[in-house]
Design brief:
Layout lengths: L4 H33 L5 H26 L6 H25 L5 H8 L2 H13 L5 H24 L4 H29 L1 H23 L9 H38 L1 H13 L6 H18 L6
């Protein structure tokens, strides 16, 4: 028994490290997008390149997961994967990219961090489940915190901030819809397989959008832009997804979510360092309220 204890501790340590790296990777996405926009890039081109560079990994994961689970998908499952993948990964990402054209990276990450609150509300509406008083209090904390951070940003920037907030909020809502709708399908066909197929559907949608709305000359961009898109694909899309799944396997979803709360904080810090975004006490207070509220909801034990 004694000889097995260090192995358990080491496995848990790896889980913590993987969850932390995943949170940092996801948090860096907004920074990379904002840096790419400095090269006069547009959201459609940037999203298409991100998904194009990620697609080989998604295809590889899909083939691997198919070999692990040989059962064929029904037409109903395929349609669900297509619809939910387009909503949860393509539409959500596109709205997020558009929103980042007009709001700060710190505010964007906090709004996206609200998706557990939206999942709770959607589940309550769809499945007619009551929301406990503790969760209601946590919801109020979250949205009060967003108001404070919004006020901080409104003091610095007036133009386009309302539109940007609305777009990123819609992005988080799309991802919440994806989570609510995907739960039963994932349980039936496997999380890895479902996610890989959904991401492939989202990649196809973003590449189709580029083909229809942009000429090939739009790809005549500086090398730095391609480097940022590639970094976004590897370090803020593919690797964090793998790391998070391995973290959940080792330490569970609850502890992984707890560690993931460093994400918005790290985004605010990286935005300060790389984008010269200002930080105020109002923003710190608002961020703290959002983090506390989301953590209460994540640890509430409610099934949604």
């Amino acid at each position: 028994m004694a000889s097995g204890k260090p192995l358990v501790n080491r496995d848990a340590l790896f889980g913590v490290v993987f969850a932390l790296l995943a949170a940092l990777g996801f948090s860096a996405k907004a920074i990379l997008i904002k840096l790419a926009y400095l090269d006069s890039a547009d959201a459609i081109t940037l999203l298409a390149l991100r998904m194009l560079f990620s697609l080989p990994f998604f295809i590889g994961i899909a083939f691997w997961s198919r070999r692990q689970q040989l059962n064929r998908l029904s037409l109903h499952d395929r349609m669900l994967i297509l619809v939910l993948g387009v909503i949860g990964y393509y539409l959500s990402s596109f709205l997020d990219f558009l929103g980042l054209q007009t709001i700060s990276a710190g505010l964007e990450r906090l709004i996206l961090f609200l998706h557990p609150t939206m999942t709770v509300i959607l589940s309550a509406l769809i499945y007619r489940r009551a929301i406990g008083k503790r969760v209601i209090a946590a919801l109020l904390l979250c949205y009060a915190g967003i108001v404070l951070v919004f006020l901080h940003n409104a003091e610095i920037q007036q133009e386009g901030i309302l539109l940007g907030v609305a777009l990123v909020f819609a992005s988080a809502l799309c991802y919440a819809v994806y989570l609510v709708g995907a739960g039963h399908v994932m349980a039936r066909i496997g999380t890895t397989r479902f996610t890989a197929y959904a991401l492939m559907a989202a990649s196809a949608a973003s590449l189709l959008q580029f083909a229809v709305m942009r000429p090939l000359v739009a790809l005549d961009l500086p090398l730095r832009f391609y480097e940022l898109a590639l970094a976004m694909a590897i370090f803020s899309t593919v690797l964090p997804a793998f790391l998070l799944s391995h973290a959940i396997r080792r330490i569970g979803s609850g502890r992984s979510s707890l560690i993931g709360s460093v994400g918005p904080v790290s985004t605010i810090y990286m935005a300060y360092v790389f984008l010269n975004e200002s930080v105020s006490l109002l923003q710190v207070a608002g961020s703290a309220l959002v983090l506390i509220g989301v953590l209460i909801i994540s640890m509430s034990g409610q099934k949604h």
